[in-house]
Hints:
By secondary structure, the protein is mainly alpha-helical. The protein has one domain (3-167). Helices cover 95% and strands 0% of the residues. It is built from two helices and no strands. The chain has helices at 3-151, 157-167. It starts with a helix and ends with a helix.
Amino acid sequence: MNADTTLILLTVFVAITAISFAAQALTMMRLAQTTKEMKERVDAFLPKAEKLIQTAETTLTESKAQINEITVRANEILQITQTQMARVDDLMADASMRAKVQMDRAETVLENTLTRVNDTVNTVHGTILRPIREITGVAAGVKAAVGHLLKGAPANVAQVTTDEEMFI
């Protein structure tokens, strides 16, 4: 290789390097410009974001207080409900026990009443109906005797036998 060729090659490489540096410089300037635009946009957006963050913090603080208050009230309501349920349970147990006692008493009264009614019926049968039956039997006997006396003496033996068989 001769010196001219080397010089030409070096010149080409230097030119390529210069073009590369120029492209890099243009890219860096464009990047700087874009960064500057982004900074301006961020600077314009930053107050709005800070205001939004402030509002969010205020809302969060208020919500936290309200949530705590609601939680406390819900716990109070739950405790009151549990107390009321215990009272209702006690009341139902007491009412159930009283109803059972009353049912037992009613059953005892009913048994006593039925026993007294049965005793009364037996007494009525023994003191009233037995004499009535006896009187009815005596009256039937008297009626038969009177009927027999009024009828007169039987005319034939066959009639007497039939009457006696019917009597027996």
